[in-house]
Amino acid sequence: MTTENLKQAVPFFMVTSMEKSLDFYVRGLGFGIKIEWKPNGTIEWCWLERDGVAVMLQEFREGFLPNDPLGTGSSVCFICRDALDIYGEFLQRNLELEEPFVGNGMWVVAIRDPDGYELVFESLTDVPEETRYSDWLNSKKSD
After folding, report:
1. Which fold has domain 8-62?
2. pLDDT in tens, the chain (143 residues)
3. Three-class SS of residue 58?
4. CATH 3.30.470.10 fits 74-143, yes or no
5. SS3 of 3, please?
6. pTM for the full model?
């Protein structure tokens, strides 16, 4: 008899400035703070959620910053109902984004947080591979 034990995978990002990161994730990406840890009166760790997905942030303590750039070689993919809706929402919030494109049969909307962690919002599509969003919009206008 097998009983499922795993419930959720939650990205855990070490950040250099909790204030900048919370502004990005809460104001920019629309996450909400669900749990916070304030051992010295300010948030040092938190659990953020949006639409049933979560991320955790923890600020590096003084003297513990790594020498290497944060987030190098990694990305977190959030599978969406409609990544292009997310793209429009993020544009309205004046976030700096790369232009969406189709890769692996999915619209790909990529953004980096203040520490360089890559966040990718994706949704399935039947649009041809490597199509850029602007080219897709132009093709729809000519239809």
Report:
1. 3.30.720
2. 678 888 899 999 999 999 999 999 999 999 999 999 999 999 999 999 999 999 999 999 888 888 888 888 889 999 999 999 999 999 999 999 999 999 999 999 999 999 999 999 999 999 999 999 999 999 988 76
3. strand
4. no
5. coil
6. 0.90
Q: Please list the residues that pair with 138 across neighbouring strands.
A: none
The tokens of 54 are what?
């979560």
Give the start-to-end residue ranges of the domains of the chain: 8-62, 74-143
Which residue shows structure tokens 């039947």? 126
Instruction: Provide Rg for the chain, Cα atoms.
Output: 18
Closest by alpha carbon to 60, among 21, 112, 28, 10? 21
Instruction: Give the Å distances, CA to CA, from 127 to 18, 85, 90, 94, 101.
Output: 38, 16, 22, 26, 10
